[in-house]
Amino acid sequence: MHVPDGFLDGKTLAAAGIFSGVGLGAAMWNVRRLSPRRVPLMGLSAAFIFAGQMLNFPVAGGTSGHLIGGVLAAVLLGPSAAVIILTAVLVIQCLLFADGGLLALGANVLNMGIVDSVGGYLVYRAVFRLLPGDRHSARVAAAAFAAWCGAVLASMVCSGELVASGTAKAHVAFPAMVGVHMAIGLGEAAITAIVIATISKTRPELLDERAGADRTGSGGFLVYGLIVAAALGVFVSPFACQWPDGLDHVAKVIGFGHREVERRSVITNYQFPGISNLRVATAVAGLVGTLLAFAVALGLSRVLMRSRAGTVTAGDEPALSGAAP
Amino acid sequence: MSGHHHEGYFDPYSRVESPVHNLPAGVKLFVALGLVVAVVSVPVRLASAATFFPAVGLFLIGVAGMSFVPPSFLLKRLAQMEPVVIGAGLLALFQPGGVRVFVALLLRTTLCLSTMLLLANTTPFPDVLAVLRRLRVPGIFITTLALMYRYLYVLVDESQRMRRARASRTFTRSRRGAWVGAASTLGHLFVRTGDRAERVYHAMCSRGWK
Amino acid sequence: MFAGVEVSLVDVEPAPAPASDATAAFAAIEARGLHFHYSTSDGSIHGINFRIEQGETVGLNGPNGAGKSTLLLHLNGILPESQNARSSGGEVFIFGQRITPKNLYEIRRQVGLLFQDPDDQLFCPTVWEDVAFGPQQFGVSQAEVQRRVKQCLAQVGLTGFEQRSPNRLSGGEKRRVALAGVLACEPQVLVLDEPTSNLDPRGRREFKALLASLPATKIVATHDLELVLEICPRALVIDGGQLVAQGPTAELLADEPLMLAHGLETPASIRR
C-alpha cells in the first residue's frame, strides 16, 4: 500500500500530513518515559517489521500480497511504539529504496502507521477483552481479526485519498482497493496469528502487556481514536455515499434499465428499489466480509493454539539464545 | 502492492567518489524535495509536457551521469518499481479522460521515483541521519532509524538463514504453502530480535550509555 | 553433574604489589561470594571467589553453560540488574572499589567488556561513530574523541576504515573494530568473551598478537585453550557455576583428568 509520489494532490497530502503529524506527536509523547532498556528494542523491532514486510503470500488470482505489520507491532510493543516503528520503516523504505513517495510519506504514515496499527490495535483491545476463554488463544484470535480490520481500514483511507486527489473515481477505487484488501487482510491476519502463536508457545512472557514498551494511557487512545475517526471522516465518508451511485451507474449501463435512479435520495422507499437495494447490498457485503474475517480469526486461533500445552510441533525451530552462558 | 527488492546489499553505490556524491547530504535532500514538489505541482498540459518535464528528465539524466552510478543499476531499480506504479495507475483509467490522467500519473511518478533513486544511491544514510539530527528530529526517532539501518541487513540475513534451515527440513511440495513456514520463522525471529536487543543494551551500557 | 570427582583448588600466591600508589595495593578485580541464578538454571553461578592482580592476564575456561558469560557480565556491573534473575548476591571489587548501582558509570570507565558477538557491540551505522561512542558517552572533548578514534583504529590495524559500514566487514575486522571501541574508553581492565571465536587462523593469530600487546589487566574467557596457553600465565576453571580450579596455565591444562572432568581437554601442544 505504499503510495508513490504523483498519485496524491496537494490538499490531500496536506491533510494527511497534518493527521500523521498529530499522531506521531502523540506517539512521541507517549514514549517519552520509555525505559532505556527498551530503546534498542525500538530500533531492532523496526528492522524486524521491515524483514516482516518482505514476506509475501499468495492472494487469489496469482497475485501476492505483503504484510504491513502495524497490528503485529502494536500487539508486540504497544500502539505508540508501533506508530514510531512503522514510521521509521516507511522513512527508510522511502529514502533508501524509493519505495513510497517522499511527499506521500504523510499519507503512508497515516494509512499504515496510524490507521492500520492504532486503528487495528483499538479493535484488538476490544475483542481481546470480549472474547472468553484462554487468554493466549484469545490474543491470537483478537490479533488476527484486528490485523484484518487494520488492513481494510487502511485501504479505505488510502482509496479515499486517491479519490480526493482526483486520481481515481470512487466507484472504481473503493471496490477495487478495499475488495482486494479484504482478501489481503486475511493473509495479514494469518501471518499475525502465526507469529503471535509462535511467540506464545516459545516465550509467552514477551507478550506480557505490562512489559510493554510504552504507556499509552486513555488520553493517548482518545487522540488516536480521534485521528482514525477523522481520517475516515475526511477521506472515506464523503465518497462512501457515492458507491451505490457508482454502482447504479454501472447497473444502468449493464441494463437494469427501466429503474429510475436519482442521486442523493435520502428517502429509501420502495419507489426506488434500485438505490436501496444497492446500498443495502454494499452494507451486507461489508458485514459478511467482516464476519467471515472474524470466523477465520477464531479458526486460526483454534488451530494454532491447539498444541500450546508444551509440545513443540514438528518443523519448529528451538529458540536459540545468543551468547552461550 | 509495494515491491520489495532488497536482496543483497542495499545502497551499494552510496560511497562512490563522484561530484554528486561529494555534495553535502543536506543539499541533495533539499534539491530532491524541491524537484518532487515541483513535479507534483506543475499541471500536466501541452506546454509543460514539452518544456518543464523533459527539462527535469534531462537534469536527472545529467545528475545520474555525473554520479558514476552504473546506469544499468539505476534502470534496473526503476524497472522494478514501475509495475507497481502501472498497476496502481490502472485505477485511474476507469474514468472519463482517464488516459490523460494515467499518462500524467506515469510521467510524474517516474520522475519522482528517479529522483529518489538517485538520492538514495548518492547519499550514505548516516549522512542523512546527521541532517535529520541537525533538523532537531527527536532523539528516540533518530536512534530508532540508526539502529534499524544498522541491523536491517543482520536481521534479513538471519531470517533468510532460518528459512533455509527450515526449508531443508520440511517436505512440503507446495511453494504456495511456504509462507506459513515463513511466518513461523518470523515469530522465532522476533524472539531472537528481543534477545539481541537486550545484548545491544548491555553493550551500550558497557560503554557508558545512560 | 560431576559428583564424586576430586576437585583440587590450586592456590597461587600473587606477587606482592608495590605500595607506592594508593590503588596499587588493590587487586584489579576481586570477586567475593558471587552468585547469580537465572530463572532457568543454565549459566547460573554460585560461591565464586577469585582475585586478579594488576597487569595479569588470566584465562577463564569451562564447558558451555558453566557460567563464564554470567561471571563476566558481573565484572562491569551489567548483572545483577537483569530481569531474569531469580536471586543474586556477592560482591565485586574493581581496584578496591565495590561495584554498586551508584558507581556503574565510573566502573565502566575502568572496565571494558568485549562481547562474544561483535554484531551486538557494533551498533552504530559507521565504524567511526562506533569507536567514538564510548569516549563521547564518557564526556571526552570532540578533539580528544577524534584523536582516540584515530589512535585506536591504528592500534587494531584498521586505519582508513572510519566511514565503513559494519555490515560490510569481515568477522575479524568486526572484532577488531569492537576492540578499538573498547580501547577508546582507555580502560585499565579488559574483559574478553571468546575473542577468537569464528576467526580464521590468520585472524586468530593477529588478534592474539594484538591482545598480547595490550598493557591492561585482562581476563579472557575462551574455548581456545591454545590461546590461553600462549597469552595467559594463569587460568581459572569454572564448571556448573563454580570455580573448580585455578593456577598456572601449563600445569592446569596438563592435568588431563581435571580437563576431562570439566568438559575440556589438554591441548595438543602439551600432550605427551
Describe this structure in words.
The complex is a heterotrimer of chains A (325), B (210) and C (272). By secondary structure, chain A is mostly helical. Chain A has one domain (10-308): Arp2/3 complex 21 kDa subunit ARPC3 (Orthogonal Bundle). Chain A has ten helices and two strands; from the N terminus they run H-H-E-E-H-H-H-H-H-H-H-H. A two-stranded antiparallel sheet of chain A has the order 1-2. In chain A, helix 1 (10-30) crosses helix 4 (79-97). Helices cover 73% and strands 0% of the residues of chain B. In chain C, a hairpin with a 2-residue loop joins strand 9 and strand 10 (242-248). In chain C, helix 5 packs across helix 6. Chain C has a domain at 29-116 and 187-270: Rossmann fold (3-Layer(aba) Sandwich). In chain C, strands 6-7-8-3-9-10 form a six-stranded mixed beta sheet, with helices on both faces. Chain C is α/β, with parallel strands linked by helices and 272 residues long. The chains are: A mainly alpha (325), B mainly alpha (210), C alpha/beta (272). Chains A and B meet through helix 2, strand 1, helix 4 and helix 7 of A and helix 1, helix 4, helix 5, helix 7 and helix 8 of B.
CATH class of chain A: Mainly Alpha
> Largest interface, by Cβ-Cβ below 8 angstroms: which chains and how many residues each?
A-B, 83 and 87 residues
* Percentage of residues in DSSP E strands of chain A: under 5%
Q: Using the 3D structure, state the CATH architecture of one domain in chain C.
A: 3-Layer(aba) Sandwich
Average pLDDT metric of chain A: 82
- Mean pLDDT rating of chain C: 86
**Main pleated sheet of chain A:** 2 strands, antiparallel
Strand order of the largest sheet of chain C: 6-7-8-3-9-10
N-to-C SSE string of chain C, H for helix and E for strand: EEEHEEHEHHHHEHEHEEHH
Structural class of chain A: mainly alpha
> Which stretches of chain C are low in confidence, meaning pLDDT under 50 for 5 or more residues running?
1-21
Percent of residues in beta strands of chain C:
15-25%
Counting copies of identical and different chains, the oligomeric state is heterotrimer
Distance between the termini of chain C: 28 Å
